[in-house]
Prior knowledge:
By secondary structure, the protein is mainly alpha-helical. It has helices spanning 2-15, 37-50, 55-87, 101-130, 141-151, 157-192, 199-232. The protein is globular and about 65 Å long. Residues 58-135 form a coiled coil.
Amino acid sequence: MEAMLRRKFSRLLERFGLDHLVDDGNEIKDNTAGHGDKRLNELWESVQKEGKFSADELDDLETEFNHHREKLKEYKHLLNILEDQGSLSENSVYSQGIMKDDDVENLHVKLQDTHETLTKNFARLKEKVTGEKEEKLFRDPRVNELWERAKDGGISEDELESFKNELHHFDHKILKHKHFEEEARDSKRLLKDGHQHLQDKHDSLVKKAKEHGRWVKKMHSTLMDKVTTKTEL
């Protein structure tokens, strides 16, 4: 039964382009690791130790930090809702809790938006506290994470440059995947408004989004294995 529910959960994630949120065992990954509780607490500790802020400034900063923590709780709550959907069966006594496709799509958008907000907020807080501005080389957080791992892994400059080129290609593909997802959502809304002549276009966009989604998932796994292998040598 558990294996069947995991497969159902996996199909749900893949269908709505959320499969990057889980690991190979279909366990929810904490994608807030880059700006989660640990790093936030460390940043707050540095605020208190440095003593360069006035009492009023400290009070304002604490409010901002608490706001970030609340946003982080919201993100994790959304992830938990998603995980619950994978454990519900249509024959279950809790089947009334199964979300409609449109609701899962809205959850997908909200997850992505909340993740981007968290990333930007943490970068802003870090810059305010340390004066260091985080320059992101790539547009997608997953790609930036791979790049940071590669830089910290003692890889040669030539290998690092080659890996960076691969990451630029990967970053572009992720952007393309997001574009097809957005186009598919827009065409679905138009179909609901009665523009039935767009059915073929919608079907084509959904197909492209799924194909690109599978490619992104496979490429992410390949690049992660590559950087892990090189850093362990």
